[in-house]
Amino acid sequence: MMNIEDFKNIYFVGIGGIGMSAIARYFKAIGKNVYGYDKTQTLLTSELEKEGISIIFSDEVDQIPEIYLNKTETLVVYTPAIPSNHEQLSFFKNENYHLMKRAQVLGFLSDPLNGIGIAGTHGKTTVSSLTAHIFKNSTQDCNAFLGGIARNYNTNLLLSKTSPWVVLEADEFDRSFLQLHPQVAVVTSMDADHLDIYGEKEELEKTFQNYVRQIKKGGHLVYKKGLPLKPEGINLHSYSLEEEEADFYAKNLKLIKGLYQFDLVHPNGCIEGLNLSYPGRINVENAIAASAVALICGINQEELRLALNNFMGVRRRFDYRIKSDKLVFIDDYAHHPKELWESISSVKAIYPDKKITGIFQPHLFTRTRDFADGFAESLDLLDELILLDIYPARELPIEGVDSSLILSKMKKKGRICSKDELIEQIKQGEIEVLLTLGAGDIDKLVEPIAQILNQRIK
Prior knowledge:
Blueprint: E1 9-13, H1 18-29, E2 33-37, H2 43-50, E3 54-56, E4 74-78, H3 87-94, E5 98-101, H4 102-110, E6 114-119, H5 124-136, E7 143-150, E8 155-158, E9 165-169, E10 184-187, H6 195-198, H7 201-212, E11 220-224, E12 235-239, E13 249-256, E14 259-266, E15 269-276, H8 281-296, H9 301-310, E16 319-323, E17 328-332, H10 337-350, E18 356-360, H11 365-370, H12 372-379, E19 384-387, H13 403-408, E20 415-416, H14 419-428, E21 433-437, H15 443-456
Parallel strand pairs: 1-2, 1-4, 2-3, 4-5, 6-9, 6-10, 7-9, 10-11, 11-12, 17-21, 18-19, 18-21, 19-20
Antiparallel strand pairs: 7-8, 13-14, 14-15, 16-17
């Protein structure tokens, strides 16, 4: 196969995926012809089109432009989320095109640089975005392929002409992160997830072990204190929110007007009075992980302090859409019981005297089946719950698995609502603090909900 950078045309099957879109933006930036397919139009696909990337929303083969039918000049990049019977992907495979999975391309692009691979079943998007932001606010600079839209830059791709660093979201889905060989790796969590891929939690943990073994010799692993990771030949650094036995941890944690201030203890001392401009107790822990990477890589304390203080967060990660004395609306990507627990707990800590209403869209039939008890326990933290139907993504329905399964295990009452009925329920409901939660297409409802709620505070 020819060198990846020798291809003139890059065709993306599933270009609207958050990881795929970053790579598409990269190839566009270096002057390649970029085109792609996706199932539905979204805010992200519209942004790509505004940047000059053409996208089609039909998988019919005759929709592929002629220049991309030149096999020798075209590389096809696809995501494992695309079903195997997809017409265009089947055509490319049958015609022996040069095909690469998204993770393979990411590995190829990052290997020549000093990779910082952020992995974990939760938190990796926030940690990778914050890590990249800290580097961007320093003399080190960086490149970055992110799994979310960083609000400081309004993109998931950051480029540098001079920096040897590249920050990568290392995704465990489909074992994608085994394509990466980072200089520095972070592992935030290894909770059971993607059991449709791994079968058992032990297999997931084994794959994380394999990932950290791929850290370059003499490199660094930053890991959440307590995770069973002990690779050889590299430098190990533990972190925790407040556990003093960790190498990096916070003390004097204070909630001030909805935001956290803390002192960061590290192996060489303590940085006092750091202010994190991004809300949520869980994001203090994420900030400690990102700060550990920064300090290990030589970023100075004042650069770190400035970056934490002006970080604007990530789209759909504890994302304030409305913040007023009268009403609050937060949108969050949480789709695993642990993520829901952290998100709801953080909101309750900030607004202890207000009623918290949550709208949750479960993601995947298998995840709902495997973690129904955990979902019920986390959602019981809410004062009021509206459950949407399960977003199936790549899956077919499973008999006996629907949103009522979660509801049946809850101590508190909730109600199931269709997406079509939701807007009317929002109009009629008494809302003080509203949380939209989930990784499916609930994001399409965020703007209509915000428009309705904005009318109430005018």
